[in-house]
Amino acid sequence: MTLREILTSAVSRLTAASTPSPRMNAELLLMFTLECDRAYLHAHPERELNAEEQGRYDEALAERVRGVPAQYITGHQEFWGMDLIVTPAVLIPRPETEHVIETVLRLASAGEGPRPASTLALRIVDVGTGSGCIALALAKELPRAEIHATDISPAALEIARVDAARHQLEGRVRFHETDLLQGFESNAFDFVVSNPPYVGESEEDQVQLEVRKFEPRQAVFAGATGLEVIALLIPQARSVLKPGGSLVMEISGTIAEGVRGLLAGWNDVQITNDLQGIPRVISARVAKLDPVSAGRSRRAVRAE
Ligand SMILES: C[S@@+](CC[C@H](N)C(=O)[O-])C[C@H]1O[C@@H](n2cnc3c(N)ncnc32)[C@H](O)[C@@H]1O
User: What is the per-residue burial (b if ≥16 Cβ within 10 Å, else e) of 137-150?
Assistant: First the structure.
């Protein structure tokens, strides 16, 4: 079969299975099978596929028809301009999570006068790192920062380490297998960053079937309401943040006001919407020590 014929038949097969964006999926899986780019597909419509190529394409299509996300078939997803390896051990990084990176970079620059964020020796911890997408994007953008990343899933951390190595960032991010921020000392970080599980089991029916069937459950669901993991994370973040440090988390519209309520007593609580106008990132700051109490606590330390 020629490339044109096989693509036409793949689009019909995916359409019949109600796969979203059938042409895009058919092309993506053919690019994966032939290890080529889209320009090649369009430039060589008469190219014949050999039996081995047809067999591999057929297998990839069968997986997609079964509902397996294309990223788990190809093993790749782009995030913040980086090609990341993904397996069913990790959540597929979403474009909206890039707003978390933008928020951290904006807050890091704010208040630093003319110093660009890239020159700052910040200490940052990414909680629930999954593929490592947030920690690695921040490591790339903030070359002087010390970055830690945690996950409760050893399988996810294995993928994050592979991704760090592929981008020569393995020396920049320290990975920890732990529950949220257990084991970290207090007053240690300028930023706690997280895209935690935040979907409530009560909303399960509204979650895409592909997500429910194929993405790791403990990456998506937090408990009955969706606030359970965040409710544990907020006090732990408060403890590990330095005075003036910030917590930046991905959220959804459903839980935005609930999270705001849990942040009572924090300063500068701000919610940023994503490109669809949905509340997507919440940030909040621990109060800075005022100069009087800062002086008092310095004197107390000297007196010990
Ligand atoms: C929504 S995914 C986010 C993954 C990645 N940071 C991203 O943005 O694509 C949540 C991650 O939190 C991890 N996780 C769930 N509960 C956790 C806990 N109690 N402590 C640490 N990590 C946890 C999951 O294994 C998963 O990798």
Answer: bbbbbbeebbbbbb
> Cβ neighbours of residue 65 under 8 Å, at least 6 residues apart?
13, 14, 17, 19
Show the tokens assigned to 36.
Answer: 């080529």
The answer to whether the CB of 137 falls within 8 A of the CB of 77 is: no
- Give, using CA atoms, the residue closest to atom 7 of ligand 1: 93
Using the mean position of ligand 1's atoms as its centre, give its distance from the Cα of residue 141 in Å. 22
What residues are in contact with ligand 1 under a 6 Å CB criterion? Answer: 91, 93, 97, 127-131, 133-134, 150-153, 156, 179-180, 195-197, 218-219, 229
| CA trace torsion 198, 204, 210, 211 (10° rounding) | 10
Return the residue matching tokens 């937090």.
222
Q: Are 274 and 99 in contact (CB under 8 A)?
A: yes
**Cα(26)–Cα(70) distance, rounded to whole angstroms?**
10
Cα distances (Å, whole numbers) of residue 242 to 183, 189, 289? 16, 6, 9
Q: pLDDT tens for residues 23-74?
A: 999 999 999 999 999 999 999 999 999 999 999 999 999 999 999 999 999 9
Interior angle at CA 54, CA 53 and CA 55, nearest 5: 90
Please provide the size of the chain in residues. Answer: 304
Which tens digit of pLDDT belongs to each residue from 120-172? 789 999 999 999 999 999 999 999 999 999 999 999 999 999 999 999 999 99
